[in-house]
Amino acid sequence: MTRQEKIKKVIEDSIFIDSDIQQPPPIITIQDKIIATSSNFITISGLPKSRKTSFMQFFIASALNNKSYFGIKTEVTKEENIVLIDTEQSIFDFYKQNKFLKKAIGTNTLPNNFSAYLFREYEPDIILESIEKIIEEKKPKIVFIDNLTELAINPNDIAEAKKVVQFLKKITAKYDCVLVCLLHLSKSSNFTLGNLGSYADRGAQSVLRVTLDRETDTSTLDCSMLRSDAHFLPISIRYDNDIKSYTNVEFKPAEENKKVKFSMEQFTPKEISTRLQIIFEMQPEYVYSALVENLKKVFGVGDTRVKQIVIPYITANKFIKQNKQGVYINN
Description:
Blueprint: H1 3-14, E1 26-30, E2 33-37, E3 40-46, H2 52-65, E4 72-74, E5 82-86, H3 91-105, E6 114-118, H4 124-138, E7 142-146, H5 158-175, E8 178-184, H6 194-203, E9 206-213, E10 218-226, E11 235-240, E12 245-249, H7 255-259, H8 269-282, E13 285-286, H9 288-299, H10 303-316, E14 320-322, E15 328-330
Helix pairs in contact: 2-3, 4-5, 5-6, 8-9, 9-10
């Protein structure tokens, strides 16, 4: 097939047919809010040791026994496969995680529809190819990737970041599955790591965050963005040594988080330029309302902070400008 023929086929396959489409049934919900449906991926990010993986275990446990954990529900039948891809942990660390999962669902052996793979020693390209091969053969309903950052040699490289996120989009659509992707947060900015994190959050159906209050040893799962539903209430958990399990605790914002004010000074000029490049790659110009919506996604803040802090800063420092028609363009 020539390139021209390939483009023609892409256009034919991509044309939108205007007809009634039913809302697909949710695969993952939290407090009955839609988190993920088939052919989509979500991200769960947090600093190292914030218990991202522990929360992921509750998503998996729910998929395995059809029960709700702290309001987290994953709808997978016993005939549908579940796959876990781990790119970071040693065999012993993963063994402990696996042991926790078995305890969570109350069994000594995991169901046959669950498979786990450890890819810590391999290069990103090999892992990506292996993931697609596994999905092609297993045809899972849901795939967990812990950690997405390891699928790129350099998470800050724009081309490599786009390649990984395009891979996520392709396999979710091609195999009609859900991907749950864990990501690290940058310790300096508290945003997802590198361009890979920015692109992944932009393409995700839902963007979730896990934060740790060290003073109370409490981890909280919250949502930064849900495309398909309203936000759920934060879920806070703490490990209870007496019962050797996690318990639900009342959510209380950490004092340190109350005192931290959002500021554009926390970003380097290069980091700001990179985040702007992401949105201006999609289209060359924006009216004010569209600019606000896209800046909210790449800076992870709400309307007020975008309007009162982000836009005044990036215009004053000439990262963007308005043309004669009053629309915003990259400077």
